[in-house]
Design a protein that fits this description.
The complex is a heterodimer. Chain A is mainly alpha-helical. Chain A has helices at residues 2-31, 38-55, 60-83, 91-113, 140-162, 164-174, 176-181, 186-211, 221-234, 239-259, 265-279, and strands at 118-119, 129-131, 136-138, 214-215. Chain A has a two-stranded antiparallel ribbon with strand order 1-4. A two-stranded antiparallel sheet of chain A has the order 2-3. The chains are: A mainly alpha, B alpha/beta. The complex binds adenosine-5'-diphosphate and magnesium ion (MG). Magnesium ion is lined by residues 43-44, 86, 164 of chain B.
Chain lengths: 293, 238
């Protein structure tokens, strides 16, 4: 029973990682860059939702929507201002810029909201689910997180695989030049990708803060790194890879925390990543690079 | 037959390397014009400059009365000009059908008209039809070339730029591809064909330009050029 409970918690945490990892992997696929500021969008989403709900006293749904809108605009703006001018710069310059943006967001949050943790009010009002005569208790947050994440993943998969705009995104991720010959606006596609990724990060932020209510300017950093690991784990650039990688990572983290050691669970997560990459350098679903004649 | 594409004094550089050093040429409506030249002569660079995938240093490019000189690359297809790029560059992870859909990306004349053109492409390129649900990466080189041509046709172009469509294909397939190009031209699409396979290209073209290290060395009627001793020695193996 205890194992089942851990498994459910792992899936829940992992599905948030998956939602965040989608942002990493899509931006990598389309813009060929690692957006290390992605994790901090999560934190901004958390704060926006917190302000709307706690300071303004508005309903949680308004808080969630505000977080999504602000993060979407923020994501598009960051791309336009910080990354777009570097479109043809060496990737190291882009990487350093992304790390800079990450610190900028954290320090701005520190300036605006201070260093005291804010106690986030959960957006979930659902009663815990008691199964097997109460021997297995699953919190409302856990259930909502899994359900919302599953819906997001399904919707995104349908969007990318079944719509013309989704196909255009895949086309841009494969060959920007050929995509332009087809009349696809690459800059608009990159903006759309950042918008989607940031909106997902906002939702992930609200879900994470609902499960772990202490909100700090550094709240997004660790989940951001874990989600990045999840994206690499699943095969960076691959959408189903990010989903599988995220969920697996969450499960590994919770199980190792419980059964091995809560102190070194993060180290175990990274060790697993290293092993996977030794066996499959491109990740679980990543394309092994090969040329076709 | 008016001038459809005109290129005037085009210069293109890669950093310090001058790849195109002031070339001018025209393509008239209804023609097949070929631009031949050895590997590295600057053929692809020229087509990329026309499609605005590369930004020219100087010069004027005009298509159907519109200046392309400062146009964004993705807007050019709407004028009725598209390119079948060197190395096919089909979207390997998309299916054949989805690749064709991308060719029709900018069309606004409704799903029925587009569906009719899928059939038109499948009729012209029957090998694609049975593979329509396969990803493009699983196709053979010849099939990928056909898909690249079919994808370009999906925008209902006035003019096609073709960059070495015969590259890496067996003689039989080259024959087939060149027939397809002729058919497309007969149906009213103007063609600018870039080729290293000068013999084949001169056979089907009306006019030709010979590109040598970034400048146009010769130009004229394709048949006459095919009989020119200098062209024969340099490009047709004597
Ligand atoms: N990306 C590039 N960077 C630097 N030089 C290039 C690049 N692409 C092509 N060149 C050079 O420009 C010249 C023309 O190349 P290209 O247009 O590809 O020739 P072709 O298509 O006729 O074989 C060649 O000398 C080639 O080495
Ligand atoms: Mg070439």
């Amino acid at each position: 029973m205890e194992f089942l409970s851990n498994l459910v918690n792992g899936i829940s945490l992992g599905s948030v990682y998956a939602v965040i990892a989608l942002g990493y992997t899509m931006v990598y696929g389309i813009a060929r860059m690692l957006n290390f500021a992605h994790g901090d969008i999560i934190m901004v989403g958390g704060y926006i939702c917190f302000i709307v709900m706690t300071s303004l006293g508005l309903p949680s749904i308004v808080g969630i929507l505000a977080a999504v809108v602000v993060c979407t605009i923020l994501g598009i703006t960051i791309e336009r201002v910080a990354y777009k001018p570097l479109r043809s710069a060496p990737s190291l310059a882009v990487l350093i810029t992304a790390i800079g943006v990450s610190y900028l967001l954290q320090n701005l949050a520190l300036l605006i909201w201070g260093s005291d943790p804010k106690s986030f009010t959960s957006v979930v009002s659902m009663e815990p689910l008691r199964l097997f005569d109460g021997s297995l208790v699953i919190t409302g947050e856990t259930i909502v997180t899994i359900v919302v994440s599953a819906i997001i993943m399904a919707a995104l998969t349908l969007f990318v695989n079944r719509t013309k705009v989704g196909h255009a995104m895949l086309a841009v991720s494969e060959d920007k030049g050929a995509a332009q010959l087809m009349g696809i606006n690459v800059n608009a596609t990159i903006s759309l990708t950042f918008a989607i990724g940031s909106a997902l990060a906002a939702v992930a932020g609200v879900l994470l803060c609902s499960a772990q209510p202490s909100l700090l300017p550094t709240t997004g950093a660790m989940p951001g790194i874990k989600a990045f690991v999840a994206a690499v784990f699943g095969g960076i650039g691959s959408i189903p890879g990010a989903m599988i990688g995220g969920v697996l990572l969450g499960i590994i983290e919770i199980l190792s925390k419980y059964y091995i050691s809560s102190q070194i669970s993060d180290a175990i997560v990274f060790a697993v990543l290293i092993v996977v990459l030794l066996v499959r350098p491109a990740g679980i679903l990543g394309k092994q690079i090969r040329e076709k004649v | 037959m008016g001038t459809m594409l005109s290129v005037r004094d085009l210069h293109v550089s890669y950093g310090a390397i001058k790849a195109i050093k002031g070339i001018s040429f025209d393509v008239n409506e209804g023609e097949i014009v070929t631009l031949i030249g050895a590997n590295g002569a600057g053929k692809t660079t020229t087509l990329h400059a026309i499609s605005r995938l590369l930004h020219a240093e100087s010069g004027e490019i005009e298509f159907c009365g519109h200046s392309l000189t400062h146009m964004e690359a993705y807007k050019i297809i709407k004028l009725g000009l598209t390119q079948v790029p060197e190395g096919r560059r089909v979207f390997a992870n998309l299916t054949v059908q989805q690749n064709l859909e991308m060719g029709a990306y900018t069309r606004t004349d409704g799903p029925d008209a587009i569906a009719a053109d899928y059939e038109m492409v499948f009729e012209r390129l029957p090998r694609l039809k049975e593979r329509r649900r396969q990803t493009a990466g699983t196709l053979s080189g010849g099939e990928q070339q056909m898909l690249a041509i079919g994808r370009a046709l999906m925008c209902r172009p006035k003019m096609l730029l073709l960059d070495e469509p015969s590259m890496g294909l067996s003689p039989l397939l080259v024959q087939e591809i060149f027939h397809i190009i002729q058919d497309i031209n007969k149906d009213g699409v103007t063609v600018l064909l870039v080729e290293q396979n000068a013999k084949k290209a001169l056979e089907i073209a009306n006019r030709a330009y010979v590109l040598e290290t970034g400048t146009i060395a010769m130009s004229g009627n394709a048949q006459e050029l095919a009989n020119d001793p200098k062209v024969r020695a340099a490009y047709l193996g004597g």
